[in-house]
Specification:
Strands 1-2 form a two-stranded antiparallel sheet. Helix 5 (143-158) crosses helix 7 (176-200), helix 9 (217-255) runs antiparallel to helix 11 (273-295) and helix 10 runs antiparallel to helix 11. The longest helix has 39 residues, at 217-255. The protein is globular. It has 11 helices and 2 strands, in the order E-E-H-H-H-H-H-H-H-H-H-H-H. The chain is mainly alpha-helical. The protein folds into 3 domains: 2-50, no CATH class; 61-95; 97-307, MetI-like (MetI-like fold), CATH 1.10.3720.10. The protein is 72% helix and 5% strand.
Length: 309
């Protein structure tokens, strides 16, 4: 019996034929080349009809390479600790850091510090976003306003937020308020300027078409301006969030009695660098995790066009 399989795809056009003989189990004989062609031809059909996704080489590398780098980094760290290239009090070993992580987690201090830091970042970053994005939308549409306010906005943008620490402590004392104020000062100006530049860069054809449809005021903002700049705003939010996460650590070292930054400061005072490294790892993992959550906004239907290549 001769069976002919014809598969037509945009990237694949193959005519496969194989012969099988009846009689006996395993009587069919398939050349290796035919099997290879069969697999490569059936794969697009699986994608089309069954939704089965096969991991490509690029996807495999995307998953494997970070793991390889991580394993290499941990191996180098262990080797340096094992050979005593640095004394234990100067560079704790991976085992010491793991024990410190378990100790901090069981005592409940680490969880409390994580909650405190996340709360301060959420409040400060939310206030900066609620004020900075509308300010940027307004400045982007007003040329005279840009001429008036951009120099001052740039001045404060280049001013390190840590320079405000003495004022934050004097104005708001010790607690959450100084840290929230510092996060606001660190993220408001970049957000406002990034939004302003995005609005000012909208092609004029968009607004000419909006005039034909008689879009004005809120309707123009919601149907033309804001959708046009939303991809850039999401990118600015991700960058500003990274700034706020850096600032909160420094702010908690001075003006707070809890939080991840305070935990590092306390570990430094107690010469517990294993605990400090533990807190550093948590800070990095939380930052990466929340950044990935913000990155999911780029997959929304209304903004996906801004990230397609």
């Amino acid at each position: 019996m001769v069976v002919a399989i014809t598969i037509s795809e945009p990237s694949t056009l193959a005519m496969l034929s194989f012969a099988s003989k009846a009689g006996g189990v395993g009587g069919c004989s398939f050349p290796v080349g035919v099997l290879f062609l069969l697999f490569n031809s059936v794969t697009p059909l699986c994608h089309r009809f069954y939704g089965v996704e096969f991991m490509t080489k690029s996807n495999t590398l995307r998953f494997v390479l970070p793991i390889v780098v991580l394993i290499g980094f941990l191996s180098l760290w262990y080797l340096i600790s094992y050979t005593n290239l640095f004394p234990a009090y100067a560079l704790p070993s991976p085992g010491d850091v793991l024990n410190s992580f378990q100790e901090e987690l069981l005592s409940g201090r680490l969880v409390n510090d994580i909650i405190a830091s996340l709360w301060r970042v959420a409040v400060g970053f939310s206030i900066a976003s609620l004020l900075g994005i509308p300010a940027g939308l307004w400045l982007g549409q007003k040329l005279n306003a840009r001429h008036a306010f951009v120099p001052m906005l740039n001045f404060f943008r280049f001013l390190s937020p840590l320079a405000w620490i003495p004022f934050a402590i004097l104005w708001f004392h010790i607690g959450d308020k100084p840290a929230i104020f510092l996060i606001f000062m660190a993220t408001f100006f970049p957000l406002a300027l990034a939004t302003m530049v995005a609005v000012a860069s909208i092609p004029s054809i968009y607004f000419r078409v909006a005039q034909d449809y008689d879009y004005k005021g809120v309707e123009l903002l919601t149907k033309v301006t804001f959708p046009a700049v939303l991809p850039q705003i999401i990118t600015a939010l991700r960058v500003s969030y990274g700034i706020s996460w850096v600032v909160i650590v420094a702010a908690e070292m001075v003006g707070c009695q809890d939080g991840l930054g305070y935990g590092i400061w306390e570990a430094r005072n107690g010469l517990r660098l294993d605990s400090a490294v533990c807190y550093m790892i948590v800070i990095g993992l939380l930052g990466m995790g929340i950044d990935r959550l913000l990155a999911q906004l780029t997959k929304l239907r209304g903004v996906r066009w801004g990230y397609e290549r």
